[in-house]
Amino acid sequence: MKRRPVAIAVLILAALVALGDVTTTAVDAPSAESTGKFETVTLRGKVVWLSEALARRFGIATDEDAAHSMVALETPAGELVPLAKDFRGRGFHLDPRMRDLDLELLVRQYEGSPVVQVIRVYTVKPDGRYELDYWCDICSIPMYELKPCECCQGETRLRERKVDDAGNVVDGE
């Protein structure tokens, strides 16, 4: 019988608990109150590797294994705002074209956290703002990181669509 690694790990953990070698603590699912209050804000700047910005701005040398572990938005005022590496923030780690662009990010800024969660990404150009995502021309579905299409496994491309002040697409697919 073939068992998955996760199932084996669960069996081992259960055996250790039964033997008293491991203790467990029940953890409740996060409630609306425990997830924290946030506000949605717009930030402008360029996304950079946090370790490179720390070295350049403050002379802080990070460990080699931290070099490409976190990105931050560097604002025109020089503030470094770390970005969460989730389904929207991961794109900045995987595609070098997404870094060092003039960007406007719509983010969730949680109370008590220096890290923000990216909601939307816009490039800023002299003629306006452009929403940025990845697009599969075959399946017509947007994605938020450079990878094969989730549907057909075909190639995706970086797509920019001009938007108005309210964020509505005015030009493009």
Can you describe what's shown?
This protein is of the alpha+beta class and 173 residues long. It has a domain at 38-126: Beta Barrel (OB fold (Dihydrolipoamide Acetyltransferase, E2P)), CATH 2.40.50. Helix content is 16%, strand content 34%. The protein contains three helices and nine strands, in the order αβαββαββββββ. Strands 1, 2, 3, 4, 5, 6, 7, 8 and 9 form a nine-stranded antiparallel beta sheet that branches. A hairpin with a 5-residue loop joins β2 and β3. It is globular. The N and C termini lie far apart (50 Å).
Would you spell out the secondary-structure blueprint of this structure?
Layout: H1 5-19, E1 38-49, H2 50-58, E2 71-74, E3 80-82, H3 91-94, E4 103-110, E5 116-125, E6 128-136, E7 141-143, E8 157-163, E9 169-171
CATH fold-level name of the domain at 38-126: OB fold (Dihydrolipoamide Acetyltransferase, E2P)
How big is the Rg? 21 Å
Q: Which H/E pattern describes the elements? A: HEHEEHEEEEEE
The backbone outline, from C-alpha atoms, is globular
User: How many helices does DSSP assign?
Assistant: 3
CATH architecture of the domain at 38-126: Beta Barrel
SSE-based structural type: alpha+beta
Mean pLDDT: 83
What is the total tally of β strands? Answer: 9
CATH class (first level) name of the domain at 38-126? Mainly Beta
Give the low-confidence spans.
1-32
The quaternary state of the protein chains shown equals single chain
Largest sheet: 9 strands, antiparallel
Q: Tell me the distance between the termini.
A: 50 Å
Give the amount of beta strand, in percent: 25-35%
How helix-rich are the residues, as a percent range? 10-25%
